[in-house]
Amino acid sequence: MRSSDIRLFWFRRDLRLEDNAALYHALKNCKSVYPIFIFDRHILDHLPVNDARVSFIHTEILKILSSLIESGGGMNAYYGHPEKIIPEILDRFPEIGALYTNKDYEPYAKDRDQKIMDACQSRGVEFHTFKDHLIFAEDEVLKDDGKPYTVFTPYKKKWLLKLESLPQATPGAFYLKPYPSSLNLEKTRSLEQGLDIPSLPSMGFELSDTPIPSCSVDEEILKHYDQKRDFPAIKGTSRLGLHLRFGTISIRKLGRRALLANEVFLSELVWRDFYAMILWHFPHVATQAFRPEYDRIQWRNDEADFEKWKQGLTGYPIVDAGMRELNTTGYMHNRVRMVVASFLTKHLLIDWRWGEAYFAEKLLDFDLASNNGGWQWAAGSGTDAAPYFRIFNPQAQQAKFDPKAIYIKKWVPEVDSLNYPRPMVDHKTARDRCLSTYKAALAKDF
Questions:
Q1: Domains of the chain, with CATH numbers?
Q2: pLDDT digits over 429-446, tens only?
Q3: Which among 205, 201, 203 is positioned nearest to 50, based on CA atoms?
Q4: Which of 216, 300, 408, 409 is the most core-located residue (most Cβ within 10 A)?
Q5: Where are the beta strands (DSSP E) in 198-272?
Q6: How far, in Å, are 17, 285, 364 from residue 11 at the CA level?
Q7: Which residues are catalytic, by number?
Q8: What is this structure's pTM?
Q9: What are phi and psi of 7, to 5 degrees?
Q10: Of 78, 105, 81, 111, which is closest to residue 196 (Cα–Cα)?
Q11: Which of 420, 388, 213 is nearest to 294 (CA)?
């Protein structure tokens, strides 16, 4: 007999017990909650065996399990396909009357969740989802005519107005208020006793030795973020992208800190919401240009050039430093990401989707909406209002943001030697070629 106060809770990109929206609602006014996590083969089957993100997730699940056991509770984890595992759980445990989880807005997740919702409805199980990894999502920030924004600056203005729209003692207090989800954890239960968390080897993975940045918020970095964020040789960025991606830190917690500490850092969180909103309203951006006319560009797509870019052998030191940092650590400084993306799309005329896919493979903090938005911004095909002839000069970027070549020499130690390659393309020649190619594509009348 199903009971709505016996609930299944599904961890996804919210790997924490504190300030977890769906977990809070699941534990509220219930008899018991069965937390689960699913190592999703739809995703994992395409990853390398030493993928650091899988190791990170596995470690975080073990931490959550340990904390739940200490609180008198428990959880289970599974390896397989969610659309098969969850219906099987619901069939084996007919007492479960509701499934609680936090929303995910990516195309695959939307399709997966529709299947799960259908499976729940056919079994008389309630399906509840909650906003958790964004501050504002879906239709929460719209233009006055009810349409979604497609330019960032007016979106940001409306976003900030909404954040402070309700009378509270502290700006943003309502929308950034934490959920007391770490209370009542003793209500959590293991569905199946003796079912261990799947080991990495049992899923075909190895433990990665890639260092993981801390999820603690460095107040000094936030305080000086606007002054130091563009200089890759210094510690001027938060390195919290990985933790926001997998929810090991609450976006509401970070939003509260940013609101008090630094307006420019807060803008980065607004960008995050903006790109997620774009992906939600315009799902075609996952595979196509936001502005369709940019899909008429005749990309060169030279595989040998692409390989040099991937390996950091372009002959442009700041580009090569960024790519080597990425390949070694799974991270690349934000300013450098723009430079290397611009170089691939504008200097080499290689399709932004090639670069986007490579970043998706390598970045620890890969997030589909933000990665896609950043690459389309670099290619000029996205929502940004700037014209397509914005082309970064890698040498000028280096002179401005790494003038003493400290960052460059860390990752390209041979930069001043005869072993370092000459630039694979001349900047002026590449710029002229890019402008000509883009102009020809955009001038076509179809």
A1: 1-131 (3.40.50.620), 133-179+218-281 (1.25.40.80), 284-440 (1.10.579.10)
A2: 999 999 999 999 988 654
A3: 205
A4: 408
A5: none
A6: 10, 27, 19
A7: 268, 271, 299, 334, 352, 375
A8: 0.94
A9: -130, 150
A10: 78
A11: 388
